[in-house]
Amino acid sequence: MQSKRKQNFSLIMFALPALVVYAVFKLYPAVTGIFYSMTNWNGLSKEYDFIGLKNFREMLSDDYFWQSVIFTIKYVVVLLVIANVMALVLAVTVESVKKGKGFFRTIFCLPNMISMIIGGYMWRFIFYKVLYYMADNWGWKFLDQSWVGDTRYAFLSIIIVASWGCVGYLMIIYMAGLQGVPTHLLEAAELDGANGWKKFWNVTFPLIQPALTVCLFWTLNSSFQVFDVIYSLTGGGPGRATQSVAVNIYEEAFRGNIRYGYATAKSTVLFLIILIITAIQLKTTQSKEEEL
Amino acid sequence: MRGSRKHYQIFITLLLIIIGLFTSFPLILAFINSFKSNGELLSNVLSLPSKLYFDNYIRSLEKMSYFRSLGNTVFLAVLAVFFMALFSSLAGWKMCRTKTRLSKFLFAMFVFSMLIPFSSIMIPLYKVVLALGIKNSLIGLALIYAGLGESMAIFIYYGFVKGIPVEMEEAAAIDGCNSIQTFFLVVFPMLKATTATVCITNMLWVWNDFLLPLIIISDNKKYTLLLSTNTLFGQYSSDWTAILSALILAALPAILLYVIFQKNIMKGIADGAVKG
Q: What are the ABC transmembrane type-1 domain coordinates in residue numbering (chain B) (predicted)?
């Protein structure tokens, strides 16, 4: 048996490439970010000063920022529910179909393979041209809305496009979960007289908890940082009505203002929000799994 | 009973076909309209093109420097995935096999940092990039992807290595292999399936990621497909035939890869999720 020191040395040597890129591109930015959030660093001058919590105090009265926080929370909650319910229903339906399972799976997952930048621009064509065409020529007057220009409809459009992009991905995970449910349990439940819905709710659903946890975790994490779909579809507009936190931070740092210090302070707050929500989510799913 | 089952099958098949049409609707519409002239597109967006109008494509190929952007994207994605798989398999394996406190600490550090959202480090990261002089460097960008994505990859490798018996490695050591030989000759071949999962899921991520290249790459000779599509969209925002043909061109490689590697991609998503 080698000595501990020798083992640790060899560990460091093997982990070195991973450690270096990790330290330089993730750990160091994360740690220095906390420092920059307390400076007035901007893109114009080379020098910057430590200004304590001034950025955070300014943030308190920054209506655009809080508007983007509220928008993001609304987006996360609505997408989380809609996308996961749709994905689970689709997964169950596709699993129960006898012919063409693979075909449907392929089609439903297709949007996930395309970047939401491309997907968002394609949907823009639909919102700008196709729906009006249908409203004019087919008499479908309810489609005659300003889908991207009106605040209410812009939110709806974003949810439609975002769900379009991620439901297939979630469906694959749910399907993997469903395939892990042993058939003899379902048969036993059937013998006991359970009908389709009861079978699903009492046997299948508890057994796919891990898949549910993964999907909720993934949706939460990715939707809190939503950027691509908003950038390509509405650009944060009309005005700033559909700006997510990530878009707000991007604009603050790389467009117009170039206030890096202040933008970093905002991103620190975003990190804290995500951390708290993830902690709550892990806690609740853990206690749920213990119950089972 | 049997009759109702059959009706049910027909019903859900029809339902799924309708949902499938809705899902592919944007792609189909973009595709058929990309072959129309501007006038024809404006008069009817739902009809098939009366004759195939390839000018849109010729224009887009040139305007977005398609083949250069595609080459940049392939180079970036392959390099990023190569770094990520190599670095994290080395680290994940050694961490799993070393039972010291340092090893536990490193593993916990990697896993915990999965929670750090990209948007909260992007500005300090931008500063690091400027300081290292790797702005506009595709190799630099690939290394950044490795740094950001390897936490998850290490986690997956670590979990897989835990499940394979250590005896093979001990036997190799007795036969006179050093650690590096043991890793590349004995361990790495056993990790093939895991490596495929890591490569596929991260390849999709890098290929479709937009925000990081948007910040790091400003030289249009280094543009990825998404960046040049985005620029083209900014320049021709109302010229739909130019935009749609560009979008089809930009989506095409991803769709082709998907059709070819479909089974592996599905497995990659499911595996990555179950282990993650």
A: 70-261
Query: How far is the C-alpha of A25 from the C-alpha of B126, rounded, in Å?
Result: 9
Cα distances (Å, whole numbers) of residue A84 to A70, A89, A178, B85, B265 = 21, 8, 14, 31, 20
Whether B180 and B161 map to the same domain: the answer is yes
Q: Domains in chain A: how many in total?
A: 1
**Token representation of residue B252:** 């095409």
Residues B267 and B168 in one domain: yes
| Domains of chain B: total | 2
B111 & B26 share domain: no
Nearest by CB: A11 against B98, B230, B270: B98
> Are the beta carbons of A270 and B119 separated by less than 8 Å?
yes
**Residues B51 and B69 reside in one and the same domain:** no
Query: Is A249 in contact with B119 (Cβ distance < 8 A)?
Result: yes
- Look up residue A102 and give its two tokens: 């693979």
- The alpha carbon of residue A80 is apart from the nearest alpha carbon of chain B, in Å, by 17
Residue (of B47, B23, B5, B62) closest to B249 by Cα position = B62
| B22 & B115 share domain | no
Question: What CATH code is carried by the domain that includes residue A91?
Answer: 1.10.3720.10
* Nearest neighbour of A15 by CB, restricted to B106, B148, B208: B106
Phi, psi dihedral angles at A4 (to 5 degrees): -55, -40
Q: How confident is the model at residue A217 (pLDDT cuts 50, 70, 90)?
A: confident
For residue A27, the chain B residues in CB contact (below 8 A) are 109, 113
Identify the band that residue B276 occupies on the pLDDT scale cut at 50, 70 and 90: very low
Global pTM value = 0.89
Are the C-beta atoms of A237 and A154 separated by less than 8 Å?
yes
CATH number of the CATH domain containing B102: 1.10.3720.10
Q: Is residue A195 part of a domain?
A: yes
Structure confidence by residue, pLDDT tens digits, B73-108: 999 999 999 999 999 999 999 999 998 999 999 999
Enumerate residues 197 to 236 of chain A having a beta carbon within 8 A of any beta carbon in chain B. Answer: 210-211, 214-215, 218, 221, 224-225, 227-228, 231-232
How far is it between the farthest Cα atoms of chain A? 81
Q: Is B133 exposed, middle or buried (0-12, 13-18, 19+ CB in 10 A)?
A: exposed
* Distance of alpha carbon B163 from the chain centroid: 27
Q: What is the pLDDT of residue B195?
A: 92
Q: Give the residue numbers spanning the domain of B219.
A: 64-275
Token pair for B93 = 């394996």
Selection from A32, A52, A49 nearest residue A40 by Cα: A49
Whether pLDDT at B1 is above 50: no
Please indicate, yes or no, if residue A15 is contained in any of the structural domains.
no
Domain's final residue, options B10, B29, B55? B55
Cβ of A105 under 8 Å from any chain B Cβ? yes
Q: How far apart are CA B31 and CA B57, in angstroms?
A: 11
pLDDT in tens, A82-123: 999 999 999 999 988 888 888 999 999 999 999 999 999 999
Task: Give B-chain residues touching A271 at CB under 8 angstroms.
Answer: 116-117, 120
pLDDT band at B227 (very low <50, low <70, confident <90, very high): very high
Q: Is residue A182 part of a domain?
A: yes
